[in-house]
Each structure stands twice: as C-alpha cells, then as structure tokens.
C-alpha cells in the first residue's frame, strides 16, 4: 500500500526525451512522454487496443502512438485516432498529473483531480543561482521505507561509508529528533573534530584549509511521502558551526527523493545541492562521482537487509534513539495511509 | 490447455542429429532422437529408473540410452535393456507420434493412436522445385495465440517493421476476413503503390524494375492448431496483381509454424518460401537474414504485451475489424478445445 | 526437513579468514567468523538491531561487528555492545556449535547443547602423514539425497565419467550392499581388468606399471547425516586386490561431505585422500583438477534430474539392486528424522 495522493519524483528530465519512458511508480505502470511543446504527460502503459505497452511507441503531433498498430493516445488517456478506426467508444486508460519543476519530473500516482502543483515543496536550492546541483538515479531492490530509515539515521556512515564521510565521532555525538506536523527533523552536531575525506575535499575546493579542526553538522528532514533532505556541512571550528558565515564553511544539502516502485523496490534519486562555488561544473561532476560511489555502498546492505526481513517476517526490529528519525517518519506515513483509506 | 490432438512442428531436421534433443511442446517434456535408419522418435524426457532426462543420453543401436545409468529406452517408451537388470516390469513412459516431412519434424503431443500422418497439411512449396525455402527458429516468451493475432493482422507491419516491409498503405487498405470451416483467410490488396524496401529488393533479385508502381497483396491463412501461412507479393501495376503472370511479379509464402511450449511461451518456426529464382541459394540466405531481423522486431513487442496481459488479467481487449483474423482463429481453437475435452 | 542434530561440514578453513562468511545450512542462514584466537564461531546472519546480515560486517576484538550501525555480536548470539547504546535488553539470535577439525569447519545446525564434538567421525586420512588430501567445493542445485544416491551407486561412472574413471566392467560386476547400524556399505570388486585413464595415471605416479591387468575395488560408506566416503583403488592383478600390499597398488578414499542448503540445493565438499606419495603436492593438485572435472560432469545430470522430479512429483522411481546403497541410506535418514521429531 502506498501514499498515492502525493507528489513523487518520477524521472530526471533527460530520461524523457525523444522516446517515451516506461516506469512503474507506487505499483502503477506508467509511460511518460513529451508533447509538442515539451510538456510531459503520463498515462498507463497499456494500449486499450491489444494491451501492448505504449512505452514501445513514439510521439507524433502531441500524441503517443502505439508502436504495435498505431493507436494514438492523448494525455487524458483517451484514444484520439487510429488508422481506419472510429475511436470514440474505445475504453480509456488512466492518466496521471505530471509537473516538471526544480529539475525533476514529478508525478501524482493517485487521483488526478486532487493533484495540486502547489503541494510540491519549494526547493530553494533548485532555483537560487547561489546553489549548484548534481545527482543521479539508482534502482534499489528494497522497500522504500528502508531507505528512509537509512537516511534518517546517519550513524551508518561510520560503518558503510568509512572511507569517505564516515567517522567515529558520528557514533559518539548525541542525536536529537523532533516532529513538527508532518515534518521530522533529526540533528547531530559534532564540534571540534577532523573533517573526513569528503569534507576535506569540499573545504579545499572552497579555498579553505582542509586539515584544521572543524565543526560538522547533519540535519535530516523527512517530508511525506518519502523525501529526505539533509543539511550537511563543516565550518572551521569556533565560528558558529551551522550558523557560521559562508566564508568559513562548506555546506550542502543531500537530496534524496525515494520513489516506491513495488513493495520491495524503489527508485532512488540522489544528489547534492551545494552552497559554494556553484559555477564550478567540474566540481559538480566530481562531487556527483564521489556521491554515486557512496550511495552504491548502501545498496548491497539495503537489498540484503530486505532479503533478511522477507526471510524472518515475524521478527520485530529495535527502535533505538538513533532510529527515532525513521520511526517517526514511518509513523507519519502510516497515519497518512490510514487517512487516505478512511 | 492445448490442442494436443494435432500435428505441430517440433524441430528442424538438423536439430536432431547425433545428440538427442530435449524440447517441451504443449506442456509435454519430450526428447527427440534418430534411430539407426535415421527415423526420428520422441518419448517423454524422463528415465523410469531415477528420473534423469533422457535427452542427456545418447543413441546406440537404435535405442536411446540414459546417460546416467545406461537404461536403454525404445521408441515405444518401453525400457529395452539395462546392464545387469531385467527390465520387463519397468514402468513405461509416454511415446509420441513423429513424422519428418516437408523439411520439418512434426509431433502429435496427444494420443499416439489418433495421430494420422495424412492430417499433416500438404505443403506444395516444400516439394515443388519451383519453390525455395529458408527459415529459422525463435523461442518467444508469450502465449502462442498472441503470435497468431500478430500474423493474422499485418497492420502492425507499418509500425513494427517500418524499415523493411511496413508502409502507410497497409493501414489505409481495407482488410477482409472470411472463415471456411476451420480455415481463416484475411486478405488485403494495395494497388498502385511504391514497394517497400524488402519488396524492392525482391523485384530486383527477380530481374524486375524495383521502383515502378506495383500492386501488393497479403493473404493470411490460419489452419489449426496454430499454423499461419501468408501469401505475399508485388506485381508491376496493372497486370492483375495477385493473378499477374510470374514474369511481372515476385511472390512468396511467409511460413509460420507456432508451437506452444507453455501457456506463456512458444517455439516460433518462421521462414519464407519463394516462387522465384529457387536455385539462388545466396538469395535464400539473404532473405532469411532479412526476415530474421524483421521477426526479431516482433519479439520485444509480443513479450511485453504478454507481461501487460499478466499484469491486467481482467482487461478486455478490443476486437476491431483488423483483429478479425485473430479473433476468428481463436474461435476455432476454442471450439476444437471444447470438442477435444467433450 | 533436515537432520539438524548432526555435524555437517560447513566450510573449508580458508573460506573463513579476514571476512565473515554467510552460508545457509539445513535452511539455517548463518554467518561464520574467526575470533581473536582464530577459533571459528557461527550465529544467525541477522542483526537484532535492524535485520541487516552480519556477514556484511567485520570482526574486531573477538566480536562480529554489524556493518550497518556497529552492533557488536558475541559468539553466543548476544549483543555485546553498540556505540551509545545499552545492549542488555536486546533480543538474542541463535548461535551454533562449530568445530574446526580434520581440515574442515563443522557445524551442528540443531540445538547447541546437544552438539558433542566426539560425534564427529574419526578421519584417519586427515591426521595420518601417510595420507594426502586435496579437494574443493561445489554448489549444486538439487536435493542432497540425490547426491547420496549418486555416490552410493557408482554404475553411473560408466556413463557420466566415461573418459576418466568409467568402464564397462563396473556395469558388469555384481554389487553388494549391507547395513551395519547406521552405516551402509556398498561394494563392487572388478578383478582382472584394464585400469581406466584416471587409475593408469595413479599407478604411473606411484611408480607402478599402468597398463597391466589390475584388480579394482569400490567400497562406498554412508554415514549419517550425509557423508559418503568411498574406498577406491587398483592393485596389480593376483596380489589380493583390496588386501594387496601397498607396493603393488594405488588406493585412495573419495571424500564426499554433502551438506544441505535448502530442500533443493546443497554444498558439495568433494576431495580425495590418497595413500601413496603423500608428499607430492604437484600430484595433489593434479588429482584435484582431474576430480574437479569429473564431479562437474555429475552436476548437470543431478540438477536436471531434480527439475524432472519437481515436474513429475508423483512418479515413483525404481529401486534396483544397484540403487540399494541409496535406498538404505535414505531409510536411515528417514528413521533418524522420525526419531528427531518424536
């Protein structure tokens, strides 16, 4: 069961170009395509004629044409024409609300009429030229909520990402979680430490000494249905940490849009929005490469964790203080699911 | 459920040579092998001793010897001997009626005693030296009836095979379907058109101008259980089209023997029998290569259509006029299935 | 259902070195690791914190540390510590009795308190310097009992291993099976024959004429739960065969530890202990290579036999005289299983 009355990141813009894109989101098998003006539409990936996937077709004159026998589908899910046929009585297929915004294609897998674009959270880093963004997409074979847990408890960095962003002090620093409406915030502050390799690189790229004592922070934000945005950064020690002036820090937002595919798989849109040297495209590429490696380290752990949970379905997992971010996020998902059904 | 009381193409002759061939047909797991005189036999692919597949064995002195412990099986499914054993009381396995004819190995998956070789349709092109044949075999992961639908409605050529045999005029020409007993015929005639690339090549190879206006025809014949033979060709325009003299046309029969493996997979024996330049073996190879590419274009569409139908089992597909060939063919299959059971 | 109250070979010593080893045995998903002193321990491959597999972790200070969030597990299945946490109330996981002996790591998948190391059979060849051992491990996708059948009836050598150890005389020589308590012995003696290629090589390596007439023997011993040890060898003819003095024979023990993974897969630890030229490590390597090839010939047969048995679950297999070794071995397994449950 998924929160279908919500906006999810469905694709990166360049995934939907000349050819339609078939993708399953929240159990809904969809096809995304661009119409004449470049606007993206999504309908079920099922031709009402013989059931062929429309994603094997092509776009012509604003219509999605089935690659099997030429039925032309409109963005409302109604057949528009077909050679030699009257299509008026043809059964319709579902269509989905789609928005392209902030460098992503968003979809609302639920009722189209409830899809209010204003419900997409404002993403300042995506529109403000002081920020630069780079990211990628992984398909991960586990329940999307295991990824939320993963990102709302960064103690795993010490173990899974020991060579890049992990460090012993993460384990040692206390973590605090609070809930504000549907918003969960888990924070950890590590003052007076050595920056780990990734952050030393970031300081260096930002023309700051990399090897001096720093204050480090991680502030994870969960928003339904499944977005996790993490404010991260380091500042030269003693200047206020998170609140230090830009001139002595390197700060970023780790961007995680976690879009369910099936009950045991999801699309993981990962990236980093950084608040320094935004014009440096080489730096963007370099960070993306590093981050891609880091997030691929999570994959095996999460996929094998999923297999273990399927094997031992009755075992209760622990909910420690470090797990509070994930626990609270799931609680919100569960409440919204109950409301959605009710 | 399959029409088991019928002849199917099981293999091409060179597939059953030195080594036995294991193949599942209509859900029956069989092993084919050649006896001393070269004649082909088929029995269940199961050794009554310990259940090993006989297809891993070898042929010796007209017997199929199990490669595990040496049980020698006869073509009637009775164990003939085994080192150090009396085999009289051994349980038998099923044997199947097999015929090698017209360049194919045919099998009757049902009751052997009902298998009358006279029921194999006469194939003139296979025995008349004025014709040449070339073809191949694909394993396709979809219900064999989706392939029948595909071949009884050639409007898909416009979309799936746009670069070779498809052309807009196929869509535009009316199609007519008639049923004569268990024989379904779907015809389409396109007069005064430009030949598509494949047929331009065929005209050229037949020493005819390729780029003049032609009349083109497609006459699809379905015969139970699942054979589709399609008369196809082009003639220089104005000479009578299908009835034009051989000197102004290039004509062929597209040969499709569609043999079920499981409910969602089949063996697709495809080929072309041509009625021009039969001695030109290079041309045979060239046509086979071209046709092999064309039929591989259908594969992805059919296999993904199958996946869609499994995902949405309750959706009714449309039965348009262009679908009449497939609809009528399935009606015959359903009637024969009901008779078979009753 | 498996005989869990028994010792099985779980791994070869070098499989459990720096990194923990995840392996499923008798349906139990375990992780093996070496503590500070080098001793091997095994616990369930499931971290009680969030269900991650402990086999993705590492060993530190005698503890198995989870690679996700750092929970440190002890060899009794109790969490020992975790950064920032009190672990006293954490749920335990199962731990297993493990012994390293005779060049193998042994595990008792059942109740740890019943695991008496004295129940591991004495293996003289593993401790006596007059013997040398070499072997390997295969994962085979079939019921472990099919492998027991295979090894307790060596008539298959004639067919499956025709190029190495098979020969017609195996089929022709009578076989005798006897049961002594839980010990099944199947013997075959072939006197006055030519040695097959493998044994000619063995004679040559042992400085004996390879091409003279020999007496050959095969004495298969089954011990529960699933160990098959086969005394094999050849002696120059007329010196007493099996009882001939060492100076005129080459003799070995084929070692087969067959460890169930799931109902339809097992770990096959194969090898040969030889009683000649024990210091010749090149010979050890050469025999291992040859044996590895021979046992890989069994794999396809066994895996396809398994598929056939799954396809025809109701068919009874024959129990001929040659099958008596397997039949008696399974009878002992069935009796012990019944006792285990009762």
TrEMBL record, chains A, B, C:
Q: Which residues form the Rieske domain?
A: 7-107
Q: Name one Pfam family in it.
A: VanA_C
Q: Which domain of life is it from?
A: Bacteria
Q: Which UniProt keywords apply?
A: 2Fe-2S, Iron, Iron-sulfur, Metal-binding, Methyltransferase, Oxidoreductase, Transferase
Name the Gene Ontology biological process terms.
Answer: methylation
UniProt xrefs under InterPro entries: ARHD_Rieske_2Fe_2S, Cholesterol_7-desaturase, Rieske_2Fe-2S, Rieske_2Fe-2S_sf, VanA_C_cat
Task: List, in alphabetical order, the Gene Ontology terms for molecular function in this entry.
Answer: 2 iron, 2 sulfur cluster binding; iron ion binding; methyltransferase activity; oxidoreductase activity
Does this UniProt record's set of keywords contain Cell inner membrane? no
On whether rRNA-binding is a keyword of this UniProt record, the answer is no
Q: Which PANTHER family match?
A: 3-KETOSTEROID-9-ALPHA-MONOOXYGENASE, OXYGENASE COMPONENT (PTHR21266:SF60), IRON-SULFUR DOMAIN CONTAINING PROTEIN (PTHR21266)
The name this protein goes by in its record: Vanillate O-demethylase oxidoreductase a-subunit
Origin species, per record, is: Acidocella aminolytica 101 = DSM 11237
Q: Write the lineage as a comma-separated list.
A: Bacteria, Pseudomonadati, Pseudomonadota, Alphaproteobacteria, Acetobacterales
């Amino acid at each position: 069961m998924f929160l279908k009355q919500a906006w999810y990141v469905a694709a990166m813009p360049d995934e939907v170009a000349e050819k339609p894109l078939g993708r399953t989101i929240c159990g809904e098998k969809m096809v995304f395509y661009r119409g004449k003006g470049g606007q993206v539409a999504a309908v079920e990936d099922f031709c009402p004629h013989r059931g062929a996937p429309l994603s094997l077709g092509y776009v012509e004159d604003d219509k999605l044409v089935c690659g099997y026998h030429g039925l032309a589908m409109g963005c409302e899910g109604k057949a528009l024409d077909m050679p030699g046929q009257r299509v008026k009585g043809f059964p319709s297929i579902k269509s989905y609300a789609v928005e392209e915004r902030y460098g992503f294609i968003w979809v609302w897998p639920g009722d189209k009429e409830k899809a209010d674009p204003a419900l997409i959270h404002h993403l300042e880093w995506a529109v403000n030229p002081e920020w630069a963004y780079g990211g990628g997409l992984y398909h991960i074979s586990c329940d999307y909520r295991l990824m939320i847990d993963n990102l709302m408890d960064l103690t795993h960095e010490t173990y899974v990402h020991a060579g890049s962003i992990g460090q012993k002090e993460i384990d040692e620093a206390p973590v605090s979680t609070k809930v504000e409406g549907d918003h969960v915030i888990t924070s950890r502050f590590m003052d007076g430490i050595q920056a780990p390799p990734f952050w030393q690189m970031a300081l260096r790229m930002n023309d700051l000494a990399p090897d001096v004592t720093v204050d480090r922070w991680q502030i994870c934000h969960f928003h339904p249905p499944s977005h996790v945005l993490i404010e991260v950064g380091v500042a030269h020690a003693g200047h206020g940490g998170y609140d230090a002036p830009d001139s002595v820090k390197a700060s970023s937002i780790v961007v995680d849009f976690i879009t369910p595919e099936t009950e045991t798989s999801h699309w993981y849109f990962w990236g980093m929005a950084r608040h320094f040297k935004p014009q440096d495209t080489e730096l963007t590429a370099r960070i993306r490469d590093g981050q891609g490696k880091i997030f691929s380290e999570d994959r095996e752990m999460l996929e094998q964790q999923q297999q273990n949970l399927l094997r031992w379905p009755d075992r209760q997992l622990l909910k420690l203080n470090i797990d509070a971010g994930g626990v609270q996020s799931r609680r919100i998902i569960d409440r919204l699911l109950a409301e959605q059904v009710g």
